[in-house]
Structures are given as structure tokens and as C-alpha cells.
Amino acid sequence: MILGVVILVIAVVVLILYAVGTYNGLVRMRNEVQNAWSQIDVQLKRRYDLIPNLVETVKGYAAHERQTLENVTKARNMAMSATGVPERAEAENVLTGALKSLFAVSEAYPDLKANQNFLQLQEELTSTENKIAFSRQYYNDSTMNYNTRIEQFPANIVAGMFNFTRREFFEAKEPAEREAVKVKF
Predict the structure, then answer these.
(1) 181 belongs to a structural domain
(2) 163 φ, ψ to 5°?
(3) Is 180 within 8 Å of 100 (Cβ atoms)?
(4) Mean pLDDT of the chain
(5) What is residue 88's predicted lDDT score, i.e. its pLDDT?
(6) What is the pLDDT, as a whole number, of residue 175?
(7) Is the dihedral of CA 56, 62, 63, 65 positive or negative?
(8) How confident is the model over 10-44, as pLDDT tens digits?
(9) N or C: which end of the chain has fewer CB within 10 A?
């Protein structure tokens, strides 16, 4: 009888320790996803800060390219006001397209392409775009690990008890964004 009670107490203690360990692991993973999202925000803020300088530099050389410049500014404002992962991903993809158009405009202006300020801003923006891509990848990796963990048995029981919910991936929505870039000379 005493042996049965001891075994039951040990089983309960092991179960409690497992639940605590699982809960703490899920909290750590949830925080990692939130941190990864914050890293995207940091890089996007840097991008938003660079864009007005780039637009002003281009304005001096390409005054009649008003529509392109307005599209970049509008896309930047839309991206800055987006909330949630899906809306933010879509807005950022629109902004990326607008920036591609802006750099295409620079091809028509040899003086602009040679302007040191423009080249420096273009290099900083390119570096920022690379950091954004890395941050998105890290966010999606963290999200995948978190989502997988909360769906696996028996961790899904603890996740369900404490309302751990799936996170959205940062995805490209437009089919054109998934295609390879075509370069023509």
C-alpha cells in the first residue's frame, strides 16, 4: 500500500516537473518569436529612415519622375502603418517593389548613378534589405519551431491549457515576388 502511494507521488511529481519544464520552454520560444519580430521592426525602421533621404536625392536629378517618387513615399507610409504579420508582410512587399522602380529610374540618369550621396544611400538600403531578409528568415524559423512545439504531443496539452497559440509566418503574397528576377541588357 505504501509502495503504491510512493509510486503515485513520484508519478505526480514527474508529471508536474514535465509540465513546468514544458511551460517554461514554450514561454522561451514565444519570447524568441517576439524578439525575432522586433528585429524585423528594427531593420524596417532603418529602412524607413533611409527612404526620405534617397527620395530627396533622386528628386534633384529626376524631377519629372514624380509618380515613382510618390509611389515610394505612399508605400513607405502604408508599410509604417501596417499592423499584424500578414498586413505588414504585404505592405513591405509593396514597398520593396516601389524601391525597385526607384532604382530603375536611376538607370536613366547617369549623373545620379555617379552621385556619391545616392551611391551611399543605395548601398545602405541594400545592406538594410539584406538584414531585413535575414530577420524575416530568423522570424520564420523561430515561428516554425514554436508552432511545431505547441502542436506536438504531449506539449500540446500544456500549450492548450495556457493558451499558447500559433503564430503567422512572414510570407510573400504576390506570385511575382516568388519568381526569379529577370535581368535584360
Answers:
(1) no
(2) 55, 40
(3) no
(4) 83
(5) 85
(6) 57
(7) negative
(8) 999 999 999 999 999 999 999 999 999 888 888 88
(9) C
Residue 177 to residue 175: CA distance in whole angstroms: 5
Could you give the number of structural domains in the chain? 1
Q: How many angstroms separate the CA atoms of 76 and 15, rounded?
A: 51
Domain that residue 169 falls in: 25-174
pLDDT digits (tens, 9 = 90+) for 80-92: 888 888 888 888 8
Q: Is residue 80 part of a domain?
A: yes
Residue 65 falls inside a structural domain:
yes
Q: What is the pTM of this model?
A: 0.70
Per-residue pLDDT band for 184 (boundaries 50, 70, 90) equals very low
CA 145 – CA 17 distance, rounded (Å): 22
Looking up residue 132, the CATH number of its domain turns out to be 1.20.1440.20
Q: Do 139 and 39 meet the contact criterion of CB atoms below 8 Å apart?
A: yes
Q: Could you tell me the three cell numbers for 154? A: 504531449
Amino acid at 131: K
